[in-house]
Amino acid sequence: MSEPFIHPQALCESRTIGAGTRVWAFAHVLPGAVIGADNNICDGVFIENDVVTGDRVTIKCGVQLWDGLRVEDDVFIGPNATFTNDMFPRSRVQRDALPPTTLRRGCSIGANATILPGVTVGPGAMVGAGTVITADVPANAVVVGNPARIVGYAGAEEVILSEGLPPGAPCRLIRADTHRDPRGRLSHWPLEAALPFTPRRLYVIDGAPDGWARGGGAYRRSHQFLIVTQGAVTVAMDDGRSRHVLRLSGPDAGLHVPPGVWTLQYGHSTDAALLVLASELYNPGERVAEYLQFSLDFA
After folding, report:
1. Which of 30, 69, 126, 296 is the most exposed place for a label (fewest CB within 10 A)?
2. What value does the mean pLDDT of the chain take?
3. Burial class (CB in 10 A: 0-12, 13-18, 19+), 190
4. pLDDT single digits (tens) 31-67
5. Residue 180: per-residue pLDDT
6. What is the mean pLDDT of residues 99-103?
7. What is the helix (H) or strand (E) element at residue 10, kind and residue range?
8. 124 falls in which pLDDT band (50, 70, 90)?
9. Dist CA 126 CA 34 (whole Å)
10. CA distance 25 to 7
11. How far is CA 276 from the centre of its chain?
12. How far, in Å, CA of 58 to CA of 74, rounded?
């Protein structure tokens, strides 16, 4: 890889610039910054001292990276994205410690997005233009709005519930035997015949705010069976080879999630209640909550 290129009109005070990195006109990189290999730092970018970037990072025009920012490999930062590092800024008041802000591997920050201090944008996440990030963004989540809300899962194929999951999907849709009469609806699953496991644990999730997420993990041994007893919830399924999203609505169908499949639940309706049957008792040690670790273990 070639030596870094520094444009004659750039002010690059750092001596830690990776091979193949390009620093273009009117960019200013302070002495303490650590810049990885093959970065593209466009016109008018300012990078403060306590900033570290990985390899193959793109930083478009008009971006300022402030102390405490950590940018991993293959991150894209769009034009005029705004980062902050002090929740209570005052003129001429220096903070002893600043909360770190982290952009995980392969995420993208859209133009004019605003990132508040101390948050982590997960690997592969997509932050839409103009979005305001006030809390951590899960891996591969697509977020928009102010404050940010989850509207999708990057690279996923959307599945219509009535059509069912396609061949090769990482999970299995199991439909209930449903009866309706003037007394209401009865949805019945013969679990022993329908599920490849014996449930040992049951839990219910409700009250999740619309636009944010639950889940964001995979289990090494535990099977899960998800039933939306009321309202609607979108479930993203990812086995490292294929990605699908399915909106579960009502108790007429449930989703079997085998071990080794990453799931994320989002888009909860205000009345949503999600019932989960699990094959194992709760054991936090068997849950993989870091997507990059999941990719190594299962993909």
Report:
1. 296
2. 93
3. exposed
4. 999 999 999 999 999 999 999 999 999 999 999 999 9
5. 80
6. 95
7. none
8. very high
9. 24
10. 5
11. 22
12. 8
DSSP 3-state assignment of 1?
A: coil
Q: What share of the chain is helix, strand, coil (3-state, %, to 5)?
A: 5, 40, 55
**pLDDT tens, position by position, 191-208:** 777 888 999 999 998 877
Class at the top of the CATH hierarchy for domain 157-298: mainly beta
Given a contact cutoff of 8 angstroms between Cβ atoms, the answer to whether 231 and 273 are in contact is yes
Q: Are the CB atoms for 43 and 24 separated by under 8 Å? A: yes
Supply the pLDDT for residue 125: 98
- Rounded-to-integer distance, Cα 158 and Cα 43, Å: 38
- Largest Cα–Cα distance of the chain, in whole Å? 80
Distances in Å between the alpha carbon of 171 and those of 90, 133, 137, 174? 51, 31, 24, 10
- The closest of 76, 71, 46, 37 to 59, measured between CA atoms, is 76
Q: How confident is residue 186, by pLDDT bands cut at 50, 70 and 90?
A: confident
Give the separation between CA 38 and CA 21, rounded to whole angstroms. 4
Could you give the dihedral angle defined by the CA atoms of residues 162, 238, 149 and 61, in that order, rounded to the nearest 10 degrees?
-130
Rg (CA), the chain: 23
Buried-exposed string 9-39: b where 16+ CB fall within 10 A, e elsewhere: ebebebeebbebbbbbeebbbbeebbbbbbb
296 vs 299: CA distance, rounded Å: 6
For 238-273, letters b (16+ CB in 10 Å) and e give bbbeebbbbebbbbbbbbbbbbbbbbbbbbbbeebb
Q: Is 183 exposed, middle or buried (0-12, 13-18, 19+ CB in 10 A)?
A: exposed
Beta bridge partners of 213: 266
